[in-house]
Amino acid sequence: MREKNVQDVNIGDHVEYRPVEGGANTTTGVVQEIIEHNEPAGDTGVTVKASEEHPRLVIRNDKTGKETAYKPNVIERVWSG
Fold this sequence. Notes:
Blueprint: E1 2-4, E2 14-17, E3 27-35, E4 39-41, E5 46-48, E6 56-61, E7 67-70, E8 75-80
Domain Hypervirulence associated protein TUDOR: 12-73
Pfam families: Hva1_TUDOR
Protein name: Hypervirulence associated protein TUDOR domain-containing protein
């Protein structure tokens, strides 16, 4: 896998991210969707606020399989796969 810039994240990319914003722990997952409009997202179906300027990334966690929407600033590293 090739490491990429965080700004270049795409659907299918493998990422290392902080599941709790501001937390020290990281985990890994795969980007499933990039949301650019307010819509239900992830396993809970909670409506997330998003726009083209402030997108949200739906990431499927490698350990749990759970899908959750995150702000791009929680991403630490990105690999294209």
